[in-house]
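Re-running Protein YIP to confirm reproducibility after the cluster update. Everything else is unchanged from the original entry.
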Amino acid sequence: MDESYNSNLPTSHLLGSVPAVVNQEKNTPNYEAPEANMQTFPPNNGGGSRQGYQTLGSPSEVFEQQPPNNWKGVFSVSSYTQYFNVDTDIVINRLMSSLNPLTGDFFSKIDANPDLYGLVWISTTLVFVLASLGNCATYLMQKRTDSSTSWNFDVSYVNVAAFSIYGYAMVVPLAFYFLLQYLGSNASLVRFWCMWGYSLFIFILSSFLLVIPFEFLRWIIILVAGTASACFVTLNLRSYMESNDLTVVVIASFFLQLALAIFIKAWFFP
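Result of re-run:
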């Protein structure tokens, strides 16, 4: 009798009994967690139409909404990285354009991506080319006139070349930028630096020809190179200011470029 009574008791109420596992996966509908909604803390309790918690957008949207850098960005290296984002094909194409001064379309080619890579690279290369080839040309001229004279390398060529080339490539575009701004014409300092930087490329090529120890031929070479570089600057500057009649500014840029060519010949290849 005790055995039959114990067998009729529900086992789920007994101490230590394990309830049966019921498989409810088939009967339970799929449940999707709601999308998280991030909010800023503390809430915006100030004035305005929007109060309480503010919903944050995606990380990219938050990044794009950050205010631009102030004037302190001028002293930040990261502010200039976009002006060095050029590849070899772009630089070669712009170098070839500087050797064809009659087109006057250089600004249209660099409008989407003006660079400062050409300014730095061309100016630095021209400094070392003038210092080295200038000494070489002086040596050849002295040996041609009197082979018995001694010759020493003139280190001052490096200092003069660095001061004149870097100073011209930086100060002249800056001066034209402020001048055009004062005259009420639109100007872009980065585009001016880019154009004047590439305009110096022809002087690198002509420096190798100026080593020839014939004074008359040297003057012809430097005048042709200086005229081509001056025409490149003048025609592009005129096309940039086509809406304004600033002939005096254009003529000034021509003679400044030609004066640089004469200075290179007179000082480094006398």
